[in-house]
Write a sequence for this structure.
């Protein structure tokens, strides 16, 4: 009997040992699988944190920071031919980032913004930009290690673009995982090479059945080219380009499909002091028959374009943008300045730049111009400047403010590519 008991004890011990070994193998396999499928997502979500709390009385959303781990599948996105509309972009994000478990939405936005290129007396190139909209949640998105052949970048993302409710804080694991899609939706940014970009409404088109302004999104259809949407084009620029010329040459290989049922134009600038406005305009130069955005062509207006010569007489070629088409604008709008959206802000920025031939004392001086044309100052009671940013393309530093809190140094952020640190001035 004692021998039988010993035999059963040994047998159960062996069964238990085998079971424990199998269990450990399963745990290891699951860990490896989770690491492969979700490792970058988990690391990124762990970095997601709130920097500023919302203030509903002042119509100010929350501000977040996210350090993006890995390449967020953007190489694959381009290799697959990009996306020709927001639906295709959502399908790619859902399939690759959230693994089909979480739905993603692309929100709409009315990007009435301003930007300009200036420089300091020390010849530091400054790209300054306002994002005018309404209360929304923002995310400072730092892409730290996007992969071989790609550059680190700082960008600002309106989380409404990835489906976050602007009237609520971003809470819960699923919402934070969804925000891993933020790198696909930069409003502006700068990479480690000092190349910067921004997106701006252009109010093109002539189809009032679409919306109150008749705005028609650019929707090119050259079968020989790959496809790209508005914000993913900006991500492509930040990730792969070091200069304006590189960016323009890359963009020429793609059909542009504007996002969020709106039409946009763009401005890019680099550390060499070169900048350009990119517009997609009808072949006939007007929008009278521009009802689907398919016949538009790329127009590039560089900061040394002769168009500007009558406006300035200086050695440095500054450039600026608001919300009307710059290409042959007098013909496009039949000489009517009142028909040019953002013309008043455009003129004010030009006045300030002209006073000093585009040379500004420092980043704060550039921010002061942004403050002057901010929504609460320029057009009180009508929306808000959600964020203002000055990128020093030479030093590779950033000065960033949300919700027009220009004089609150505890809400003024400084980022440096050299140190990798994001701090406040306070």
């Amino acid at each position: 009997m004692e021998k039988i008991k010993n035999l059963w004890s040994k047998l159960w011990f062996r069964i238990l040992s085998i079971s424990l070994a199998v269990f450990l193998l399963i745990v290891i396999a699951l860990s490896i699988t989770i690491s492969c499928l979700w490792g970058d997502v988990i690391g990124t979500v762990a970095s997601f944190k709130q920097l500023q709390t919302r203030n509903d009385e002042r119509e100010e959303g929350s501000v977040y920071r996210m350090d993006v781990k890995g390449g967020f599948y953007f190489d694959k996105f381009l290799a697959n031919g990009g996306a020709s509309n927001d639906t295709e972009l959502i399908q790619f994000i859902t399939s690759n980032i959230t693994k089909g478990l979480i739905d993603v939405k692309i929100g709409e936005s009315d990007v009435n913004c301003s930007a300009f290129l200036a420089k300091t007396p020390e010849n530091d190139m400054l790209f300054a930009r306002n994002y005018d909209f309404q209360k929304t949640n923002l995310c400072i998105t730092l892409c730290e290690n996007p992969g071989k052949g790609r550059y680190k970048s700082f960008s600002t993302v309106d989380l409404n673009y990835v489906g976050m409710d602007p009237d609520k804080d971003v809470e819960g694991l699923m919402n934070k995982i969804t925000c891993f899609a933020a790198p696909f939706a930069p409003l502006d940014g700068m990479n480690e090479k000092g190349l910067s970009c921004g997106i701006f409404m252009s109010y093109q088109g002539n189809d009032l059945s679409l919306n109150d302004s008749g705005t028609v999104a650019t929707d090119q259809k050259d079968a020989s080219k790959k496809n790209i949407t508005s914000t993913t084009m900006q991500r492509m620029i930040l990730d792969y380009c070091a200069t304006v010329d590189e960016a323009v040459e890359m963009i020429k290989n793609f059909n542009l499909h504007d996002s969020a049922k709106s039409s946009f134009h763009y401005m890019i600038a680099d550390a060499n002091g070169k900048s350009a406005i990119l517009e997609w305009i009808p072949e006939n130069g007007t929008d009278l028959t521009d009802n689907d955005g398919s016949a538009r062509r790329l127009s590039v207006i560089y900061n040394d374009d002769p168009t500007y010569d009558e406006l300035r007489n200086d050695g440095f070629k500054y450039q600026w943008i608001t919300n009307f088409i710059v290409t042959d604008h007098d013909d496009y709008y039949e000489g009517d300045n009142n028909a040019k959206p953002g013309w008043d802000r455009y003129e004010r920025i030009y006045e300030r730049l002209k006073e000093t031939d585009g040379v500004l004392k420092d980043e704060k001086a550039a921010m002061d111009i942004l403050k002057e044309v901010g929504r609460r100052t320029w057009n009180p009671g009508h929306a808000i400047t959600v964020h203002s940013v000055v990128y020093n393309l030479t030093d590779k530093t950033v000065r960033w403010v949300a919700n027009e809190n220009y004089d609150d140094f505890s809400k003024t952020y400084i980022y440096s590519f050299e140190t990798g640190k994001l701090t406040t001035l306070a």
Summary: The mean pLDDT is 87.
